[in-house]
Specification:
Keywords: Repressor, Transcription, Transcription regulation. It comes from Caldimonas mangrovi. The N and C termini lie far apart (34 Å). The protein is mostly helical. The chain is 73% helix and 0% strand. The chain has one domain (30-113).
């Protein structure tokens, strides 16, 4: 939590983390690229939330988790998964490993039955 607060509350920490994570500064023309990424992330979040709402209506979403929270967790999961794969983390380089990880994530959202 403290790290997350630092990124949110301290513009210099946020700026440094953006450069370290994205390997560029989002200034000038690049600011629009970052804004576009945020828009696309929000669109993905909205689609995921609708999917989880449908799962909830069908009785397939695990009790105790809201469609909004499930959608946010899935977006963070997918974003992190992609980032770690692109970084070359060995455990995430095979299709079998990826499929198993994604299946575990999906199963954690399912209603026990």
């Amino acid at each position: 939590m403290q790290f997350s607060d630092s990124v949110s509350d301290d513009p210099s920490v946020r700026h440094t983390m953006e450069i370290l994570n994205f390997k560029c500064e989002f200034v000038g023309e690049m600011q629009q690229d970052l804004a576009d990424y945020v828009v696309h992330s929000e669109e993905c979040l909205s689609k995921l939330q609708r999917t989880y709402q449908a799962a909830q209506r069908n009785g397939d979403l695990r009790t105790g988790i809201s469609p909004k929270m499930a959608a946010m967790e899935t977006l963070v999961f997918l974003t992190g998964l992609l980032r770690l794969r692109l970084l070359g983390v060995p455990a995430l380089q095979t299709r079998r490993e990826l499929n198993a990880l994604i299946a575990a994530h999906v199963d954690s959202r399912r209603q026990a039955g």
